[in-house]
Amino acid sequence: MMGNSMMGWAWIWPVLVLIGIVLLGYVAVRLTQNRRSLDQAAGPRRESPPAQAASSADASSSARSILDERFARGEIDDEEYRRRRAELA
């Protein structure tokens, strides 16, 4: 009699293991998606400047691109953009 009742519950462990594996997969996917959305919200990553000094041509083009980006994002107005652009030229 005892043997029959134990065999009736033998199916529960494989089901619990399967549910655990599915939950782990779900959590892994959600964590990956959250990390991607946080990376996208932070914006593009900028590389650190090189240890060597850049030439003046590279520095002015870099400054110009930064100025262009700030103007495109709306951080500075048209007047400020034109004034700083003239200073760089």
Automatic annotation (TrEMBL):
Keywords: Membrane, Transmembrane, Transmembrane helix. Residues 49-65 have a biased composition (Low complexity). Pfam families: SHOCT. The chain crosses the membrane at residues 6-29. Residues 38-66 are annotated as: Disordered. Residues 65-88 form the SHOCT domain. The keyword Transmembrane helix applies. This is Membrane protein. It comes from Pseudonocardia parietis.
